[in-house]
Specification:
This protein is mostly helical. The protein has a domain of 58 residues. It has 4 helices and no strands. Helix 1 crosses helix 3.
Length: 94
C-alpha cells in the first residue's frame, strides 16, 4: 500500500475521532504515544513509518543563511522604457 494512501487513511481516521482533553500537562511525545496505543496495528505501522520519514527529513534540513541588506543589488533592473506611458492608458490621458 502506498505511503500516501496510508497517510490519507490515517488522516481521515484522526479526523473522525474527537481529540480527548488532557487533564494534566503532558509532552507532545507522550500524547502521540498515548494515541498510538489506541490505534490498530496497521495504523501504528503507518505512524511509525511517518515518524521515520519526518525524522529523516529533519536531519537533512540545513538552515538557510539570513539574507544581508544589498545582497540582491544588480539582480533586478528596469528597462529604459519603464517610465514611458502605456498604450492602454492613452485614451485617459488625452
Amino acid at each position: 500500500m502506498p505511503l500516501s494512501l496510508c497517510l490519507g487513511r490515517l488522516e481521515s481516521w484522526l479526523e473522525s475521532n474527537e481529540p480527548k482533553p488532557y487533564a494534566v500537562l503532558v509532552s507532545t511525545a507522550e500524547k502521540i504515544f498515548h494515541k498510538a496505543k489506541t490505534l490498530p496495528e496497521p495504523a501504528q505501522d503507518v505512524l511509525l513509518r511517518l515518524a521515520e520519514v519526518l525524522a529523516h527529513k529533519a536531519s537533512f534540513q540545513v538552515p538557510l543563511p539570513k539574507p544581508q541588506f544589498g545582497s540582491a543589488k544588480g539582480m533586478i533592473t528596469m528597462g529604459p522604457e519603464f517610465d514611458e506611458p502605456l498604450e492602454d492608458f492613452k485614451p485617459y490621458m488625452e
